[in-house]
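Blinded run. Sample ID left blank on purpose so nobody reads anything into the name before looking at the predicted structure. Input follows.
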Amino acid sequence: MSNAAGFKQTLDRLLSGWRDFVLQVERKYDDSIYEYLNDLSVRDSLARLVQTLSHEGRDVLTKVIQPLDERFIAATNETSQPLVKLSDGESLAWWYYRVPANPGKELLDDLQSERLL
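Blinded prediction complete.
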């Protein structure tokens, strides 16, 4: 993951990134849809990491991530379509079907122009 990210990626950095993002979403997400999607990619990295762990490791990490996921769900609304276009047969994680309940103007404009709201 560090090679793909272009910098040293650690579990602590991923968890901090997801925690900070969730906090932003809870308060008011003021960036663009492109930044929002970039921030969601942290959750993708956590999901990939979970898949590489032993059963016990998965359980431990899932217990750490789950409260943050619950906060994210509480601070967002579900969309009927994903935030990115899908190719045939492609599926996206549940977090790509959620938008902040309290988006800033830039994100709100982006979501409306993409007909996601």
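Unblinding after everyone has recorded impressions. DSSP finds five helices and two strands in the chain.
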